[in-house]
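To close the section, here is one more complete example, presented without commentary so you can practise reading it yourself. The ligand is nicotinamide-adenine-dinucleotide.
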Amino acid sequence: MIFENTFKKFLEVKEFFKNLVGDNKVVEDLFKILEKPQREIKVYLPLKRENGEIEIFEGYRIQHNNFLGPYKGGIRYFPEVSEDEIKTLAFLMTVKCALVNLPLGGAKGGIKVDPKNLSEKELENLSREYVRKIYDFIGPDKDIPAPDVNTNAKIMDWMADEYLKISNSKDIKLKATFTGKSIENNGSEGREEATGKGGEIILERFVEKIGLKKPLTVAIQGFGNVGYNLAKFLYRKNYKLIALSDSKGGIYSEEGFNPELVMECKKERGVIAGCYCVGSVCDIRLGKDISNEELLELDVDILVPAALENVINEKNAEKIKAKIILEMANNPLTEEADEILNKKGVIIIPDILANSGGVTVSYFEILQNLNNEKWSKEKVFEELEKYLSKAFDEVWEIKEKLNVDLRKASFIVALRRIYQRYMLI
Ligand code: NAD
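Output:
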């Protein structure tokens, strides 16, 4: 159902695209092809728990399309992971890589597990088992996984190590089978912050384009890798972060939070609640706790969903008061919400553009591994700015030319690249 709804949004650009390229039959064929992933892998992962019992976990790797290059996409660990969700995210990866002009296709993986219920050793064993099961289908020229929700550099290091072990090789190029590795293990500088940095680059281009004056108020749902790093970069660019949240709830302050201090406090307390850090101090009088639902409905200039899918849906879309939504999570709006918000005149900066910084720096990590290079963080961010600014400008040009919203314009830019390659196959 999630895939069907997401693909429906994509189908809306078919007629625009036909008019653009004028080849109806090929466009029809291409949409038919993109509606199905090229391969769906489902695996069962036996894990011996510390109490001696065997538990079986379900895992997926869905390879959507590789017309532009090897499949690319993260692996998430989450109790509610479903095949439908992974398929949707794999499709979005195909579109995202094409949009940013990376020579990569789209895939996504996941294990139905709550990692918080596993010991570190169990987590490692489960991650290695997953690699053993999908080994034949991955590699630098086949499919290159990366971190996503609840996975990180440590997990990528275990996975890369398992891959090299099975390959019986020490060839550093094979490490390019996984991105988002730790720096000591041939990861890239800046990968950790890349998705947040990318969000900042795209938002800054947008703000400049329509001439908005700062400080602009921002509410961010999710204070993990993406939400925290974006908050950090926006704070440095003079945005006012009036609300932040994690899975247990949110915090609000009219003064605007200092995200680095909030993170220090969250690390100490375990939750963001009560972390009212403004300027250089944290004080109980500077803020109040709010729920995640309240955060989404705040009257802010920019609302940033940076946690989960479908958090803005037909139940709350009418209540959204933000003027701009920067989609840092994948698929945070349902199709119905997208329609309601567009009608209300809310500007939506779509996920495939807003959160494309992560996969772009993953691509730089592949290049560094394959060419045995080590780029500085400055170089990584400079290159990132070039890729994302170009993607933004192309999207803006199509938006103006065809008078469509930013999501449709992003789909069209991506589709144009996939179409051009398809014509050569
Ligand atoms: P993460 O696990 O580091 O952080 C997730 C955050 O969301 C945490 O703060 C968690 O507390 C919060 N959260 C979880 N459930 C919540 C709920 N019900 N309500 C509010 N907050 C909740 O994950 P991440 O890597 O930051 O990914 C966040 C989103 O961004 C996902 O949709 C992911 O697919 C997308 N994304 C991530 C990357 C990346 O490079 N990490 C790249 C592109 C897109």
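Once you have examined the tokens, check your reading against these statements. The radius of gyration is 21 Å. The first strand starts at residue 39 and ends at 48.
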